[in-house]
Write a structure and sequence with these properties.
The complex is a heterodimer of chains A (245) and B (293). Chain A is an all-alpha fold and 245 residues long. Chain A has helices at residues 2-17, 23-45, 48-51, 56-71, 73-80, 84-88, 94-127, 138-165, 169-193, 196-208, 211-236, 239-244. Chain B is an alpha/beta fold and 293 residues long. Chain B has helices spanning 24-31, 53-59, 75-85, 90-103, 119-131, 149-166, 177-183, 201-208, 222-229, 255-263, 278-289, and strands spanning 13-17, 43-44, 47-48, 60-63, 137-141, 169-174, 186-191, 194-199, 212-218, 234-240, 243-248, 267-274. The two termini of chain B are 21 Å apart. The chains are: A mainly alpha (245), B alpha/beta (293).
């Protein structure tokens, strides 16, 4: 089973790298992404990008942006290019196909994000040479490693679900765009729609709780959402339904 | 599909013929367990399609309506992926990929992206992928559709050679009747989801066409034809371009016909039993299966 998941992920990775038509173009595109996230933006933000806890959000968002640009292709692309039926006619189990695509998305988003983080540390230390080495605290590092993994998983599971439901890649991209906007705007503006006592209770709870606990709760919620999306995608993945679609 | 029962002997090429929309592709999907039948059951390689579809897909290969190739990847990557899917060990996988690509004349071009290839080359690669893991049974859904005659003939030759060499059973759907005639030991004919006829082509030919004799010679006139029409066993005659065609009952003897032609003043240069073309057989069977209006 794990071997089959990795086989599907291997194929997906090749397709990610070749999405621009050649390995060279794929490598250039990847270098550009790393250049923006690992060099250009760290130079703009300065050491705050590494030292300020609020900028953890920046790192958490990075894999989301990376994954949603590719994951819409997962099933909708196979359907559009008429490769899905042959894949479904192979010996691969439903779970191996589904998880292979999710794993490919997560490993891409998380892997590139981790390289971006490492590059940002190098950039900051070169640009702001001083007495001390600029690096994340152990707590921040743990949150970045786990947080980027979970946000990559959020984009990958949500993306695979959208791709399963969509007839075309474009439609899947639209679903994902709406989902991403909801992720941004619902927490920002949705809280205003809550009754005042609820808002006060939440603010009170956050005020009384340590930042570590708040982060752990947020990560746990994120993990729960990831698992829920994976379960929904798993329920949606039915060979006969995909064929008839 | 409606009450479809077919038995295909191991190691043979079975042709599944029918017009567009007859249910050929649906049958393949049902047999691979990609679709579940609303009622009834099917057994493929001893496994039930409802309860043991993964076991069926484990031992089968499929070249479906579309080639199913990843056009962004190279030819070698396509085969590498499906070799991994079927758990071929690394060395065996590499050897098998080389063997098949060499057979199809594609080895030198294995590092090219599939999107740059012609349709004929893609179909050959897709056939190589289908046979990669040495399946017991392969399903081929109109493999030569859309190919030019030369590419189609080449693919047919490759298919026949590989099927013979590897002892694989082939379930081939097509509406190319010549293809079925050249490749298939047995054929099944389907119309609107119902099996119209099944069996060796010769058997279907005998069943669905009346025996005929074609006589070529001189002085084959309407008078000669009229002389034949009264004979026992003769169903009808037709004259075209000085060629006399006589339709006979199934067990009618032919020698007396020749004597009657000679007696009526005709000269016979050649007399041969005419064989109905597969197209005639197909059209006759389709006509017979047509629901009454």
């Amino acid at each position: 089973m794990i071997g089959d998941v990795l086989t599907v992920a291997w194929k997906e990775w090749r397709e990610f790298l070749l999405i621009r038509g050649s390995y060279r173009a794929g490598a250039i595109s990847l270098l550009l992404i790393l250049g923006v996230f690992g060099v250009f933006l760290p130079l703009q933000f300065g050491p705050d990008l590494i030292q300020s806890p609020i900028l953890l959000i920046y790192w958490a968002w990075m894999p989301v942006m990376l994954v949603i640009s590719l994951i819409a292709d997962a099933f909708a692309g196979e359907r559009e290019r008429h490769t899905l039926e042959t894949l479904l006619a192979s010996r691969l189990s439903d779970r191996a196909i589904l998880l292979g695509k999710v794993v490919a998305g997560i490993s891409y988003g998380w892997g590139v994000a981790m390289v971006g983080v490492a590059l940002a540390i190098v950039t900051e230390n070169i640009a702001h040479r001083g007495d001390r080495f600029i690096i994340f605290s152990p707590g921040q590092a743990a949150v970045i490693v786990v947080g980027t993994l979970l946000t990559a998983a959020l984009a990958a599971t949500g993306g695979v679900l959208a791709s399963l439901r969509a007839a075309t890649v474009r439609q899947a991209q639209q679903f994902l765009m709406l989902g991403t906007m909801a992720l941004i705007f619902v927490p920002a503006f949705g809280s205003r729609l809550l009754p005042a006592p609820w808002r006060h209770a939440i603010a009170d709870f956050v005020g009384r709780t340590s930042i570590t606990t708040v982060v752990v709760i947020l990560l746990a919620i994120l993990l729960g959402v990831d698992l829920l999306l994976l379960a929904l995608a798993s329920a949606r993945f039915q060979r006969h339904r995909l064929i008839l679609d | 599909m409606d009450n479809l029962t077919i038995q295909v002997s191991a190691g043979s090429i079975f042709g599944f013929l029918g017009p567009n929309g007859a249910g050929k592709t649906t049958t393949i999907r049902l047999l691979l367990g990609l679709l579940a039948p609303t009622s009834g059951s099917a057994t493929v390689l001893g496994h039930d399609t409802r309860s043991a579809a993964p076991a069926i897909r484990e031992r089968t290969g499929a070249l479906l309506e579309f080639s199913g190739l990843y056009e962004r990847l190279t030819a070698a990557d396509n085969l590498e992926f499906y070799g991994r899917v079927w758990h071929l060990p690394r060395a065996a996988r590499a050897a098998r990929i080389q063997e098949l690509l060499t057979h199809f004349g594609l080895w030198e071009r294995r590092r090219e992206f599939v999107r740059t290839w012609s349709r004929g080359m893609k179909q050959k690669l897709a056939l190589a992928r289908t046979l990669l893991h040495r399946p017991t049974l392969v399903f081929l859904d109109e493999p030569t559709a859309g190919l030019d005659p030369i590419a189609a003939a080449g693919l047919r030759t490759d298919l026949a050679a590989l099927a013979g060499r590897e002892g694989v059973t082939v379930f081939l759907t097509t509406h190319n009747l010549t293809e079925a005639e050249k490749l298939c030991a047995q054929v099944g004919i389907i119309r609107a989801g119902r099996l119209v006829a099944v069996g060796p082509l010769e058997q279907l030919r005998a069943r669905s066409s009346t025996p005929r004799i074609e006589i070529v010679g001189r002085n084959l006139t309407e008078q000669v034809a009229a002389a034949l029409r009264g004979m026992p066993g003769v169903l009808g005659t037709a004259l075209h371009d000085g060629r006399l065609t006589v339709e006979l009952e199934r067990d009618a003897s032919t020698a007396p016909l020749i004597q009657r032609v000679l007696a009526a003043g005709g000269e016979v240069e050649e007399a041969r039993k005419a064989v109905a073309s597969i197209e005639e057989v197909f059209l006759t069977l389709m006509h017979e299966a047509e629901p009454p209006k």
